[in-house]
């Protein structure tokens, strides 16, 4: 048992040393796998070091800001309704969907799906405990959801009064989001979490604000164009439908948000954080 613990300790020391010494490629000036991973672990640990109130307020801000994506989704849907086919409208929403994500990520508010893999890496690197990860996830999710509820109430009230969109638009978007069986929503959310975790990794690899904006736009536009389920945007979409239309029940909302959150977490933590981290570890061992 003692030898096993010593071996694991030495292995962790080797990993930490390799991360410490990771540098950009001299030929391409591109960040190496180890350098990106090191930055992600450092960024993740900085979030752990923040106070609970700071995390809650930052995640609340992200929940509010994602509402601007929803505002534009509703506005564009309402504007195009009756002018083009329904399928074309739904696909065209990918043009405006990324706006809220750009605001959140460049503004460094804390969004659950973008932070899922980031916050998992310090745990894999044995710098934080699994319990602390769950506590942090809980705070971020709580803030994101409350922010989403607040902005949904505001937009459902102001939208029809300013003729930006009507309540029929709100209902149609909500029904479109939940119009699948639970397995489909869950699997879709895993893929969405995977893409958002990958986005976090790619942003860490980029070196300019412009390239980050392009990456955010590409990844989130893919989510919108394919209809993959993002828990925090979906929270606003389905909650707004529930408070404004009898076509959406509380049970509909509850099933959706639980499946979407769980799927996003699995996609971000397993398919990005775990695989990226293990790939580096095996390289160190090799």
TrEMBL record:
Localisation per UniProt entry: Membrane
Classification via Gene3D superfamilies: Glycerol uptake facilitator protein (1.20.1080.10)
Coiled coil segments of this chain: none
Organism for this UniProt entry: Aequorivita vitellina
GO MF: formate transmembrane transporter activity
Protein name: Formate/nitrite transporter family protein
Transmembrane spans: 55-80, 92-112, 133-158, 183-204, 213-233, 253-275
InterPro entries noted in UniProt: Aquaporin-like (IPR023271), For/NO2_transpt (IPR000292)
Region of interest (Disordered), residue spans: 1-27
Major location (coarse): membrane
